[in-house]
Amino acid sequence: MALSFSPLSIDGAGEYRRLYSLCSRKSSYYSFGSLWAWRNIYGLSWAFEEGLCWIRTEKGVLWAPVGPWDEIPWAELMPRLFPGPETFRFVPDGLAHRLKEALGGRIQAINVRSQWEYIHSVKDLIALRGNRFSKKRSHFRQFMKHYSFTYRSLGPEDGEAILEAQRRWLQEREPSGALLRENEAIEEMVREWEAVPSLLGGLIEVKGVPVAYTIAEGITDHILVIHFEKALSAYNGGYQAINRLFLQKTASSYTLVNREEDLGDKGMRVAKMSYNPVDFLRKYVIKWMPL
Fold this sequence. Notes:
By secondary structure, this protein is α+β, with helices and mostly antiparallel strands.
């Protein structure tokens, strides 16, 4: 049986969000906001079949299926849908463990450290107490001391302010394919803000100039994902300020914040670890090898 894929659409968003809510471990990759923002860049399509949403790129690369993983009869389903070998990318640990349990030696699970998602305590990142956060507190205080700023929460009417902050941030960097693709995803998310439930954000301005912003998405009642977070390098402590002020003033009702992966970048890994994660959501490459 071949899966029947079609391009992502708003019409399927409600059913997708229902299936995503049933995942035992919710990766930031599979939030509706993330899929929607990156859909054109990766050429994403989906297929709602067998009680799951299957996701594929335009190059034919399969991602993890989304839905109630623990209720699926994998031992019957996988040989029927995939009679030959198949590879799945970006598979959250909850699904990887379930597939290994159900299919044993027919599954090879390859742990990909660069794709681990960093999970933090919102309470910790607001309080910044103790020696663990001493450097973060210092940077935050320097920002508070040196800049006369305003902070405000963001909504669909703030698209131009976000894009202006993003343009300024991009001008500080050498252009690259990765940055341009990310910029396209940011523009798409801002443009379709109202189509993505639970999207929220924050913006810092200094003398009317947008100098830092964040765009996030609530994926459960208590878990938040930071999709994009940018601060101009000329403003010391900008990243620490937008992180803390956003969580404190806009997202304090959440318990955990997912700050996504480090992509194998050493500097990014050091920065993410410096926020003292309380957990990781690990992701795998899964290779299905039928008997």
